[in-house]
Design brief:
about 325 residues, alpha/beta, Spore Coat Polysaccharide Biosynthesis Protein SpsA, Chain A, 2 domains, elongated
Length: about 325
C-alpha cells in the first residue's frame, strides 16, 4: 500500500528539518513525502531546496493560500491511495506509517486512522502540566464510536497523526479552504459520515504545543469555525432526514450564544438564547419539547448550571448527543 505523506509549511524554519527527518527515517518503505511551502518568508525555502532525497517532492507556492488549501494542493499531486498528514513542526516515530498500515490491513472498513500522541513544548511558555492535560484528553480516545461521539463536543483527533483514504477525502469534499484554523475538525465531521475512524492506542506522533499557537492567539475565530462545523455535523447526522431546520435553544455566555446563532444559521434554527437565570427557563423548555416545538438544547462551556440543566433535561426525555449537546466554546 503506497502512502503519500503531505506536509504544509509556512515559516517553519525552526522545526521543519526535524519533521522531515522523522518521515525519511520511517521503517515503512512505500511512501512519498510532499511538502507544500505556502509562500514562507523565512529560511524555509532554502532548507527545502537543499533536499535531494528522491522520495521528497517540494511545491513552492508564490502566494500564501492558508493551510487548508495548501494541503488540498499537495494531495492533488499525491500518488498514494492513503494520505498521511504531518504538521511541519511535529515528529512521527519511526514505525508510525508501518503501524498504521498494519492496523488498516486488519480493519479494511476504516477510512481514516490516527494515533495517540506525546506532547512536546514548542516554546518555553508551555507548562508541563498543560502538555500532560492535553495528552490525557487525546489518549483516552480509540474507537470509532468514541470519535463520533466526541465530535459532538470538540475535536478528538490530532491532525498530524491522521492517515485517511484519498477516495473518502475526495467524496467528503476535501478541506474547506474558507476555514483558517478548524479545517481539520470540519473534515473529520464529514469523513465520519462516510465510514469508520479509529486511533491506534499507541504513541506514534509527537505533537508540539505552543502558548501562542494560531488557535490560542485567535480563540474567537477558532470557536467561530468550530460552531459552524459542529452545527453542520448535528444537522447532517442526527437530523439528516429532516427537511426543516432542527430547533435548538443555546445556553452560555451572551457573546458565546450570539456567535453560535450567527455561525449555525445555515444548519439550525435557534428560537432562544439563554445566558442568565438558566434554570428559570426549564418549564418553558419542557413544554416546547413535549409539544414537539423544540429538538433540544446546546450547552456551551460558559453555561453556568450546565450539569444541573442536563439532569433536568434528561428527566424530560432528552438524550445526550441527540437532544442535549455540550460543546467547546473556548471560554467565550
Amino acid at each position: 500500500m503506497f502512502v503519500s505523506v503531505v506536509m504544509a509549511v509556512y515559516n517553519g524554519e525552526n522545526f521543519i528539518q526535524e519533521a522531515i527527518n522523522s518521515i525519511l527515517s520511517q521503517s515503512y518503505e512505500y511512501y512519498e513525502l510532499i511538502i507544500i511551502n505556502d509562500a514562507s518568508t523565512d529560511d524555509t525555502s532554502k532548507i527545502l531546496d537543499e533536499i535531494t532525497d528522491p522520495r521528497v517532492k517540494i511545491i513552492h507556492l508564490s502566494s500564501n493560500h492558508g493551510a487548508a488549501q495548501a494541503l488540498n494542493i499537495g494531495i492533488e499531486h499525491a500518488n498514494g491511495e492513503w494520505i498521511a498528514i504531518h504538521d511541519a513542526d511535529d515528529i512521527s516515530v519511526p514505525n508510525r506509517l508501518e503501524t498504521q498500515i498494519a492496523h488498516l490491513s486488519k480493519r479494511p472498513e476504516l477510512i481514516a486512522i490516527g494515533s495517540w500522541i506525546k506532547c512536546i513544548p514548542g516554546d518555553n511558555q508551555v507548562l508541563e502540566n498543560e502538555l500532560q492535560y492535553f495528552e490525557m484528553g487525546r489518549n483516552c480516545i480509540t474507537t470509532d464510536s468514541d470519535i463520533a461521539s466526541i465530535l459532538y463536543h470538540g475535536c478528538p483527533l490530532t491532525h498530524g497523526s491522521v492517515m485517511f483514504s484519498r477516495n473518502a477525502y475526495v467524496t467528503a469534499g476535501k478541506y474547506d479552504a474558507n476555514l483558517k484554523i478548524a479545517y481539520d475538525y470540519d473534515l473529520w465531521t464529514r469523513l465520519i459520515t462516510l465510514g469508520r475512524i479509529e486511533n491506534v492506542p499507541e504513541v506514534l506522533y509527537y505533537y508540539r504545543r505552543y502558548n501562542e499557537s494560531l488557535s490560542n492567539k485567535n480563540m474567537h475565530e477558532t470557536v467561530k469555525e468550530l460552531f459552524y462545523s459542529f452545527s453542520k455535523y448535528v444537522r447532517n447526522t442526527i437530523y439528516k432526514y429532516r427537511e426543516d431546520y432542527p430547533k435548538f435553544v443555546v445556553a452560555g455566555s451572551k457573546i458565546g450564544c450570539e456567535l453560535f446563532v450567527e455561525q449555525s444559521k445555515s444548519s439550525l434554527e435557534i428560537p432562544l438564547m439563554i445566558y442568565k437565570k438558566e434554570r428559570s427557563y426549564l418549564p418553558q423548555l419542557k413544554s416546547w419539547f413535549k409539544r414537539g416545538e423544540l429538538d433540544g438544547v446546546i450547552l456551551l462551556d460558559s453555561a453556568v448550571h450546565k450539569h444541573g440543566l442536563i439532569r433536568s433535561l434528561k428527566r424530560y426525555g432528552m438524550e445526550l448527543n441527540r437532544n442535549i449537546f455540550e460543546f467547546y466554546s473556548g471560554g467565550l
